[in-house]
Amino acid sequence: MPTSTIRTAVHVTAATLALHLGSTPLLAQCSPADKSALEAFDRAWGDATVKGDRAAVTNFVADNYMGINVFGTVDKPTLLATNERNAALNAVSAAPAATADRYVISCTPLTATISHRNTFVDATTKLPSYSRSLHFLEKRGGKWQVVSSTGHALTDGQQLLYIEQDWNDAAMRHDADWIEKTYAPFASEISSRTGAIENRAQAVASAKSDKRVYDALELSELTARVEGDVGVVTGVNHERGKDADGKAFDRRVRFTDTFIKRDGRWQVWATQGTPIP
Prior knowledge:
The protein has seven helices and twelve strands. The chain has helices at about 15-20, 30-50, 55-60, 75-95, 155-170, 175-180, 200-210; strands at about 60-70, 70-75, 100-105, 110-120, 130-140, 145-155, 185-190, 195-200, 215-225, 230-240, 250-260, 265-275. Strand 7 and strand 8 (about 195-200) form a beta hairpin. The two termini are about 20 Å apart.
């Protein structure tokens, strides 16, 4: 993705459902403060789970909790025992802990849905692996409790959609290090503004010198396709902000990003954007 074609990717499947529900009048009461509190709740629950803290997890999880995984369903006693066992094993094997991000949260005064990405980095290979969690909560006795939870490993296509979001954040920060790390050595970038082509080194330099400020970035028509070790993401980005001279811009760009999986991780191979009249 060129630095001139910045965007925020949308979540798919369960996360997309949460976004759609969040736009309905029923769930419109979920304020930014509510979402922040629910994210803090989820992170605290995650920390307690990793530590095998039975007392803490007992408070986070409802008595009639039901988890769903590839092996079937899990009730609260089984969850507590599993957490303790895994914590003991992790203490011996030093298994990597998950980093949670990309939260999508919807809520009413009494119900909430939380979805987020999990990233694991192998201690030996330093390569990441990814999954997504989906939790359903109810407010009981004035406090939130998890009533059901599920999750799944991310497919390659879903990983690419999340990379688009990471890319967007990096570009907003003018994060040249991210480009250096994520672009393949032979990557090419075609600017949607000038039509100029840049290699990785030039793209890194452009990120460092970019003075634009973005007010809004809205993505639509997002599609990911994967064939073997090659992936393609297409979509439309609506960009609004101010250029280096303070002049406002408002435009839509149709983009194509091509990725290649090398050394166990997805890297940007080529990227191009075309302004839509």
